[in-house]
Design goal:
The protein has 67 residues and is mainly alpha-helical. Helices cover 73% and strands 0% of the residues.
Length: 67
């Protein structure tokens, strides 16, 4: 809904009163923070997984080379 219309207030030629614009801005800020938090959590998980997977790959390569 928000992306399909202008987010301007009545004073600026838009379709929303100032309180509606403020409310949408608060919601967008909250969603932005949730996205950032999720991204940080996923990045941390991937960073913790990477060394384990690298070690597994190296072991498989060594086992294969030993054959």
């Amino acid at each position: 809904m928000w992306s399909a219309v202008s987010g301007r207030s009545f004073d600026d030629g838009g379709n929303y009163c100032a309180s509606e614009v403020n409310e949408y801005n608060k919601r967008l800020d909250k969603l932005t923070q949730q996205v950032i938090t999720t991204e940080q959590a996923l990045t941390a998980q991937l960073k913790s997984i990477e060394p384990k997977k690298t070690e597994q790959i190296v072991k498989i390569i060594h086992d294969f080379e030993d054959r």
